[in-house]
Amino acid sequence: MRKNATILLVEDDKVDTMTVQRAFKKNRIMNPLYVTSNGKDALAYLRHERAYGDPEKSPRPGIIFLDLHMPEMNGIEFLKIVKADNDLRRIPVVVLTTSGEEEDLVESFNLGVAGYIIKPVEFNKFVESVRLIDLYWSLSELSPEEK
Question: pLDDT by residue (tens digit) across 107-133?
Fold first, then answer.
């Protein structure tokens, strides 16, 4: 990942959150990682609302990793709002989910995600997926607004 770029993980499953954290550690990804457990809280984080009112404690992410199936506001609902918001729509979103449903995949890309990754069950394969994401985002150019 870009050095020091904040990463927002939107994930309701604590085991999956720990798996992401372990995969980051294994890949020596040292970027600050912030976690919210649903789309509603992720929007509050991005807009500095409620518990996330202090921008120092909820910095703008350089990338969002998004699960799709969550309580309160799922990933598709979150994407619809974020991608319609002129201030937030350029933040790259990578779907990181267990859903292999074609409908989820098509709708995610129609809403402008930067990538769609089905979480591998095997930890070593997940670590490799995270390594490849890291490599890609280390080499990718940012939009002028994000630089």
Answer: 999 999 999 999 888 889 989 988 888
Structural domain includes residue 17: yes
CA 142 to CA 100: how far, in whole Å? 28
| First vs last C-alpha separation in the chain | 14
- Cross-strand partners of 118: 97
- 11 located within any domain: yes
3-state SS track over 71-99: CCCCHHHHHHHHHHCCCCCCCCEEEEECC
Q: Domain holding 127: CATH number?
A: 3.40.50.2300
> Tokens at residue 39, please?
């789309």
- Tell me if 58 sits within 8 A of 45, measured CB to CB: yes
pTM for the model stands at 0.90
Domain limits at 110?
Answer: 7-140
